[in-house]
Amino acid sequence: MRIFGSFAVVVVALGVVSFSATSHAQVASGVPGDQIDDIPVTIGGVKELFTAVRDAGDANQWYYIPDKPRVSESQGADGKAEPDFTLVRYQMRDPQDPTKEVAGGVLVFSARLAVPADAHTQIVDAIAKKTNNKTFRLGPMPIKSSRVHMYAPDGKFVTSAAQGEGVGPAYSAQKMTFSVNLTQVGTQVLDAMSDSAGIPLYVDMTYRRLTPKMGFKIKVNWESLQKHYSNDKQFRAQASYYGLFGGSADVKASTIRDTLEKGGHIKVESVTGEQFKPEDVERVMQSFISRINQTILEMNKPPEKIEAAKSGLADAKGTFVSAQFGYAVKKQLNVSRLNETIDYTTRAIEEAQTVASGLIGIGSYAKEIKERHIVNIKPGQFSTAYFALPAVGDDLGINQISLEVNCRLDDQKKLPATAIWTKERGAWHWKGVPAQFIWFPLQSITGDDPEKIKKLKFESVYTIVTGGQSFVRRHTHEGFNGDIALIPAVAVANAITMDTSRLPWAVFDQQQGKIEEVDIVLKAGDRTFSQKIAPIRVDGKWVDAPIKKLLVERGATVIPTVQFRLTSGEKRPWKDNGNPISAGEEGNYDLRFFPSDVP
User: Which member of 186, 379, 529, 571 has the greatest number of CB atoms within 10 A?
Assistant: First the structure.
């Protein structure tokens, strides 16, 4: 899923960059006995339900699946917690009818998926009681990727996009930071953020899971499945729901399987010499259906309407199921996989998908705090100009960003301002206090003269420090957007994500695995980056090679040179060496390798 219509994207940082790793890519267990559902947890007087899953390789490691996003907090000047949330509201003349006004705004906020400490304790107690074990560890589920969507209180879609530089959180404790243009959204949405419980925010999360060994294979006819999804909306909704949440009173694995088998879309075959029971097939149906959904459905296209928001949104299933009707069927499938056999006789790593939902806003904070974080601009009010500070993701190896902004009328008249973002604080600071906007008193240089106001320029200089090196990026914004005294945040960098987790690593499979290391060299503009990637040992055990990320100048042409080093010592080149990497969503780059990429 994805959030925010005119999304003022966000991570600022680029240039001479070091590689940075997210958390080690642990893998959840897909064995049914290693998952505990519907763990009751009370947070802020509200009962919520969690799912916990054991690690596939470490019996004493458990993960909880986050259930909702929560506004993060930073320490204010007085030492007290302040929400990472600022909303600038404005009224402007309707472009379609100048006699009327419409409401809009710019929202900058950060959220986390991690649970509070007391909730963590409740989940630990529930697992201990269920397993009769008190020596295990509990942490948030390691997330491979995610996207978010925002809806109005009446259920109407508002906007959709990814956090920061175009990727979701890599782990649940990480901040998801957004800078969002809310153009003509109406006062209903803006009021809900500031005066009531908030507005619905949904986070799609993908995590990695190790399947159990079963005695069967499933043959899939993708072409037939695609036609069935296209023609049967009710089945599509049920399958979409089941792939995200599993069974319910209305959606059962056996029903979905019967429908697919009777239609000739799948065929379950036993393996010679091995026995399996029908319930064995049902154990893998959720991950199997999730895989089908990701292949056939346009999962990145959010529905235009969901059920109207309910108080608390504690039950994501009830609210979210109707949204699945909005997913479109992909127009075209890869012809190379129209017929496929999925083998469950061996254990394999798969991607599982789930959803967290919650209400985002600051209505519960004290009045004086809300007044500091909500700014109202009247139509045509140019005595003050607001400059939105870019949202910064906290997993990209950025040490510090210094931003110098000059509000300039001509060569002689200017208003300077400087803001600092540091890794330690995880937030922008202006004049020594946390800030998400800079404001300029314009009257001192314009005298409220409309002609002078039109000539204003905002010159910004970003100095990004990452990996002990620095890079400077300059940007000039000419005047205001229409009649709004607001300068939105801009993107000044793009991220490259490198994922080697699906390659046949020798340390994980001594019979079929053949790769020991991947050597990657990327040329981006005048700069060259190199990195050697391989699995690493943690507490005496091999874990996946960490997903690497780096930052490059926005719009840079990125040329890869990749070598796969085999156990024999031989190096084999990647087939796409020398070809520019295609930029994806928000101009970012994904470099993901599969077994078929190894010559």
Answer: 529
327 and 245 belong to one structural domain = yes
Q: Please name the amino acid found at residue 243.
A: G
Domain extent at residue 576: 495-597
61's CB contacts (< 8 A; 6+ apart) are 26, 54, 55, 136, 137, 139
With residue 599 as reference, give the H or E element that holds it.
Answer: none
Mean pLDDT is highest, among 127-141, 145-159, 273-287, 427-441, for 127-141
Q: Residue 303 — φ and ψ, nearest 5°? A: -65, 150
In 183-323, the DSSP E strands lie at: 199-210, 216-221, 266-270
Residue type (1 letter), 113: L
- Band of the pLDDT at 126, cuts 50, 70, 90? very high
Burial grade of 25 (CB within 10 A; 0-12, 13-18, 19 or more): buried
Q: CA 56, CA 28: separation in Å to the nearest integer? A: 5
Two tokens at 486? Answer: 């607001």
Identify any residues that bridge with 356 across adjacent strands, giving them in sequence order: 203
- Distance in angstroms (rounded) separating the CA atoms of residues 372 and 82: 10
DSSP string for 54-116: EBSS-TTEEEEEP---EE-EEE-TTSSEEESEEEEEEEEEETTEEEEEEEEEEEEEEEE-PPP
pLDDT band at 151 (very low <50, low <70, confident <90, very high): confident
Examine the domain organization and report whether 66 and 159 are in the same domain.
Answer: yes
